[in-house]
């Protein structure tokens, strides 16, 4: 685990890079939410990031997040970054304010039902598989508008925007066309079929390319390795 002083220094460095990227794009720093991608990181590391000023954390697995939340400040804003199974929709709606991985109509409906039963309203991003990769989930870019037309009226879930992870590449600059593609798809949805709660938010950009994502309009970026260091190896019996 990275030392507490190092996490604080890393966070300040990331903030400086975010501010510079916003300035280049003519944007305000307040327009971008920094999410600490804390998958498999120990509770102590999250606590150190919180003490350094980070307020939003992203987890990939519901059970892992629930376990961490029991030990951490109740004011943390939890976001779900990883895929969600329908049978965990209720637990997800209990903890996460925002779900970035709504990858099919059925899971949108499941989260909405769970939120209604809990008497809460959650926010969500529709995940788009821009590169049509077999290893990734998400709506196809060409089928997104049709999927939106098939959604029922949602009472417990606000679909605020789109999320995508570009195909892997050694050169972060190669992600720019994919980020631009997601922004253009967002603009199309905004014009033709904005769902309830739509704000045109864009969840895109990670440790290696978040500055480029901000230049292309990202409103939410997830930074893990650059903040916490490499992920620890999973232990046997880790919660799914």
Q: What amount of the residues lies in strands?
A: 15-25%
Which stretches are low in confidence, meaning pLDDT under 50 for 5 or more residues running?
none
CATH architecture: Alpha-Beta Barrel
- The portion of residues assigned to helices is 25-40%
Tally the helices. 9
Q: What would CATH call the homologous superfamily? A: Alanine racemase
Summarize the structure.
The protein has 240 residues and is an alpha/beta fold. It is built from 9 helices and 8 strands. Helix 1 (4-24) crosses helix 2 and helix 4 (89-95) packs across helix 5 (105-118).
What does this structure look like?
The protein has 240 residues and is of the alpha/beta class. It has one domain: TIM Barrel (Alpha-Beta Barrel). 38% of the residues lie in helices and 16% in strands. An eight-stranded parallel beta sheet has the order 7-6-5-4-3-2-1-8. The longest helix has 21 residues. The radius of gyration is 17 Å and the shape is globular. The two termini are 21 Å apart. The model has no long low-confidence stretch (mean pLDDT 95).
Supply the key terms.
8 strands, alpha/beta, TIM Barrel, 240 residues, eight-stranded parallel β-sheet
Spell out the blueprint of helices and strands.
Layout: H1 4-24, E1 33-37, H2 43-51, E2 56-59, H3 62-69, E3 77-80, H4 89-95, E4 98-102, H5 105-118, E5 122-127, H6 144-149, E6 157-163, H7 176-192, E7 201-203, H8 210-215, E8 220-223, H9 225-228
Parallel strand pairs: 1-2, 1-8, 2-3, 3-4, 4-5, 5-6, 6-7
Helix pairs in contact: 1-2, 4-5
